[in-house]
Model the fold of this input.
Amino acid sequence: MDFNTEMNSISNQQLKTNNFLNKAGIEKVIIKDYQLVSPEKGTPYLELNFETINEEKLTLKQRFYRVKAGDSPESAEWKQERIKRVLSNAGCNFSLTGEEVIKSALNKPFNVLFKQVEYIGYNKDFNNKPEIKTKIEYSFSEPINKEITGNQSYFYSKLRDKDQAKFEGELLMWNRDNPSTSNNTSNQINNNIDEKSVSENIKDNDLPF
Done:
């Protein structure tokens, strides 16, 4: 095509925008859709796709891990209570069965607090250097008629002690193996929020114990 035609095509091109939820806060949301996943290896989970009720329609996918063989009674109870609470606050109908319960919670508004969470990541552009990165996650929710209140500590979660120790150990090993590229910023947090909608890890990495 000639350049005038090409430029006209460029002018009419719709720009794709990043619509991931990328900051902590309290939002009115709906559950837009869901997936039930049972991987061959790893933990089964229910993935909910949240969408904010505003002009931006920001989205975030969150995995809610389901009970698997070998779970302790405490783990099983925590997982099931977490799923029940989010579906209840979204207005589901528990008199239904199976997936119909989840479907009954779709497209109904409710309140959610999203928090910024630290996790261990690896910089592929820097010899897989371990870094403390952050991402946005679902924390807890309330029905649409109940406001969420809380202090600033609700909006940010640091690494758990065992994960901090793991990070420090991995960083020491990386610095040992990469002496020419180590520098004094090696233990700083990468403040760029990971805009991936979900983690690729399918372990029970959301358990609080």
